[in-house]
């Protein structure tokens, strides 16, 4: 723990955080080649990861510490996992990763679309986190966790010496109380990295926060956000609703895998050992949902190995059982985009593309609040009936168009959700469908950089 002071430890435990012992690359490491984008990006674009491989070359890199999801179904996935774990030990043994004293890190991320998105690196207590539907934990998933996606991540973590996280947690802080403290003191902090990111990811700067008073002030600001007395008024909810402090913005399945791993480890420990074991915590980046540099983007759907006519007939069949359903076809994407906002309020509009053709499916009187819920319910039903059809979740309109114009593919464009209503929606409705929103486009995602030891 950061301090022996009982009151401070109680504060940390109350809000489920600690200042972690962070591992950073040694001074002689090329940071640009060290840092690569989150593993769950570009999953249908292997050429992206081929290019990253060429750029990194033989240099030490987080590319060697992660399993890009584009390779999840590769025949050599077991060998890849073993290599990851061996490389973690190598980087520790050779001093490529250097241990820091307990601290937070304040970072500023510039992307091709925003000048600055602020983040705060800390570790959160997995005992305060629950990804199950209907959770009332202090830290909650925003989207449905697909249990089947956890085993490969748990397997990597099982024998891993360190964690290399891309998890981002959101706080709902309209008064900017947490990050105003950081901005005020940034000029007094030690700058520990400042470099351009690979593959058009922009730029990132990081500042070490190791001043005890500053850390305590940050913790107290988070404690105020978790005040149970003001919670019902803030969200206009009943008093029986439990406080939500951190909502998972990105890396939902990575955090869930950390939770599963911790439960496995905890079962082998005494109560005293479990109190301070490093696997009890997961390192995250905290971002304020009110940050102007945080843009919520939709995550689109692309189906593979599908017959377009059969899919459209199935939509008519499925939605026709409970809704007024209609279909319109267009000569171009521009014409389709012009018409998207011309339908009745309350209707769910589903623009699509396949083989150079464009259209809009319209579901009137939907039984869900969100468009993504309406579409995903149908897609789950369709894929269950047609197991040869596969789905991927794609960032960016252009990527959807490019991929879906290939024979046998079919893409749906989805709208963004209102980020300012996210917390209230989670509090009232629980978890959203998987891949409901994205915190920026693919190149704006968190890049791997900081590490932390998770073995005892």
Written description of the protein model:
With 456 residues, the chain is of the alpha+beta class. The chain is built from 15 helices and 21 strands. It has helices at 6-15, 31-34, 46-56, 77-93, 150-158, 177-185, 212-225, 231-235, 252-266, 271-276, 308-320, 333-339, 371-385, 397-404, 422-429; strands at 17-18, 22-25, 97-99, 104-110, 117-125, 129-130, 139-140, 162-163, 168-171, 190-196, 203-209, 246-250, 281-288, 296-304, 324-330, 348-354, 357-364, 390-395, 409-412, 437-439, 451-453. The longest helix is centred in the N-terminal third of the chain and has 17 residues, at 77-93. The chain starts with 5 loop residues before the first helix and ends with a strand. The model has no long low-confidence stretch (mean pLDDT 93).
Record keyword descriptors for this entry.
globular; 456 residues; seven-stranded antiparallel beta sheet; 33% helix; 2 domains; ten-stranded mixed beta sheet; 15 helices; alpha+beta; Conserved hypothetical protein from pyrococcus furiosus pfu- 392566-001, domain 2
Concise synopsis of the structure shown:
This protein has 456 residues and is α+β, with helices and mostly antiparallel strands. Helix content is 33%, strand content 24%. A hairpin with a 6-residue loop joins strand 10 (190-196) and strand 11.
Break the fold down into its secondary structure elements and pairings.
Layout: H1 6-15, E1 17-18, E2 22-25, H2 31-34, H3 46-56, H4 77-93, E3 97-99, E4 104-110, E5 117-125, E6 129-130, E7 139-140, H5 150-158, E8 162-163, E9 168-171, H6 177-185, E10 190-196, E11 203-209, H7 212-225, H8 231-235, E12 246-250, H9 252-266, H10 271-276, E13 281-288, E14 296-304, H11 308-320, E15 324-330, H12 333-339, E16 348-354, E17 357-364, H13 371-385, E18 390-395, H14 397-404, E19 409-412, H15 422-429, E20 437-439, E21 451-453
Parallel strand pairs: 6-7, 7-12, 9-13
Antiparallel strand pairs: 1-5, 2-3, 2-21, 4-5, 4-11, 5-13, 8-21, 9-12, 10-11, 14-18, 14-19, 14-20, 15-17, 16-17, 16-19
């Amino acid at each position: 723990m950061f301090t022996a002071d009982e009151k401070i430890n109680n504060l940390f435990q109350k809000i489920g955080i600690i200042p972690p012992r962070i591992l950073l690359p040694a001074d002689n490491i090329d940071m640009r080649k060290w840092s690569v984008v989150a593993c769950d990006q570009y999953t249908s674009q292997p050429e992206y990861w081929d290019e990253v491989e060429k750029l990194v070359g033989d240099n030490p890199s987080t590319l060697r510490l992660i399993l890009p999801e584009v390779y999840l179904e590769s025949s050599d996935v077991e060998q890849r996992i073993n290599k990851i774990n061996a490389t973690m030990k190598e980087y520790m043994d050779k001093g490529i990763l250097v241990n820091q004293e307990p601290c937070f890190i304040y970072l500023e991320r510039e992307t091709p679309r925003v000048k600055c998105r602020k983040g705060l690196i800390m570790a959160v207590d997995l005992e305060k986190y629950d990804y199950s539907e209907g959770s009332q934990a202090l830290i909650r998933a925003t989207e449905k966790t697909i249990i089947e996606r956890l085993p490969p991540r748990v397997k990597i973590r099982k024998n891993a010496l360190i964690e290399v996280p891309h998890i981002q947690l959101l706080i709902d802080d309209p008064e900017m109380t947490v990050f105003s403290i950081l901005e005020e003191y940034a000029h007094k902090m030690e700058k520990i990295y400042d470099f351009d990111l690979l593959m058009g990811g922009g730029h990132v700067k990081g500042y070490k926060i190791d001043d005890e008073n500053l850390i305590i002030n940050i913790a107290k600001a988070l404690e105020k956000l978790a005040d149970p007395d003001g919670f019902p008024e803030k969200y206009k909810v009943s008093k029986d609703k439990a406080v939500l402090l951190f909502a998972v913005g990105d890396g939902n399945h990575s955090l869930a895998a950390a939770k599963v791993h911790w439960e496995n480890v905890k079962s082998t420990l005494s109560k005293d050992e479990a109190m301070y074991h490093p696997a009890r915590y997961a390192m995250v980046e905290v971002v304020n949902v009110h940050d102007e540099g945080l843009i919520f983007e939709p995550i689109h759907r692309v189906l593979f190995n599908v017959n377009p006519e059969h899919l459209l007939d199935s939509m008519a069949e499925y939605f026709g059982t409970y809704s007024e359903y209609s279909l319109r076809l267009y000569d171009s994407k521009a014409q389709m985009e012009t018409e998207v906002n011309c339908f009745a309020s309350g209707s769910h509009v589903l623009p699509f593309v396949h083989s150079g053709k464009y259209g809009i499916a319209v579901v009137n009187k939907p039984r869900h609040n969100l468009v993504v819920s309406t579409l995903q319910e149908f897609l789950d039903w369709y894929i269950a009936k047609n197991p040869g059809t596969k789905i991927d979740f794609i960032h960016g309109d252009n990527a959807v168009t490019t991929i879906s114009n290939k024979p046998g593919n079919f893409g749906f464009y989805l709208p963004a959700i209102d980020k300012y209503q996210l917390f209230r929606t989670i509090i009232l409705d629980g978890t959203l469908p998987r891949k409901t929103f994205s915190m920026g486009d693919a190149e704006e995602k968190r890049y791997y950089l900081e590490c932390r030891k998770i073995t005892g």
